Automatic annotation (TrEMBL):
PANTHER family linked to this entry: ABC TRANSPORTER, ATP-BINDING PROTEIN
Pfam families noted in UniProt: ABC_tran
Top-rank lineage group of the source organism: Bacteria
Record keywords, A-Z: ATP-binding, Nucleotide-binding, Transport
Transmembrane segments: none
Keyword Nucleotide-binding: yes
Family (UniProt): Belongs to the ABC transporter superfamily.
Lineage: Bacteria, Pseudomonadati, Bacteroidota, Sphingobacteriia, Sphingobacteriales
Name assigned to this protein: ABC-2 type transport system ATP-binding protein
All residue ranges annotated as the ABC transporter domain in the record: 2-229
InterPro entries (alphabetical): AAA+_ATPase, ABC_transporter-like_ATP-bd, P-loop_NTPase
GO MF terms held by the record: ATP binding; ATP hydrolysis activity
Amino acid sequence: MIEVQELTKRYGKQLAVDHISFGASGGSVVGLLGPNGAGKSTTMRMLAGYIPPSSGTAKINGYDVVRQSMLARKSTGYLPENNPLYPHMYVREYLGFMGALHGMNRKKQRIEEVIGLTGLGPESHKKLGQLSKGYRQRAGLAQALLHDPPVLILDEPTSGLDPNQLSGMRQLIRDLGREKTVILSTHIMQEVELLCKDVLIINKGKIVADDELKALTAVRSLEEVFRELTR
């Protein structure tokens, strides 16, 4: 579902992502870890078609993110780190707008489905600007799920959630990972241990670990592995 070969991003002289290669198949949740500034969000933005790579290739569901950009984007649901929303739109209005951008039929039915999936129901009558940070995260995830893409790219999806919301969001991501390919960025090691089968660790733009969670943690904890590889 995701194929990356020698993917690179330069900003002037700065090499933000340095010739990385990896793959992820359907029915899995992959944890993307790294310290701040390591290149995680830049990698996710390139996969989502938000920014172009400087070189290398990435394919989503078989579609090249540069040469077949629209097809790749149709196959991708993206929740960015800062979750940009339209604060003056009501929740259903926003989801309806996003559904129209995707050219969806029967979008009203799907809107109600994703509102239920993400637990937005109690706050769905409000404008997005009136929502708490946790519910704004849910709204962002709802739009990522709206067109039922096979690939989800989630950058810090549990940021701002209280313990009850966190439990529900983790279960939703776990359920989604049974059918979809999910790339999940987080700083919370426990989250990776609970949700992810495979782990990528990136440091200074390079992938320093790409393995199954159980193999990485056979001898040491994930936190110890992370600190050793990124210090």
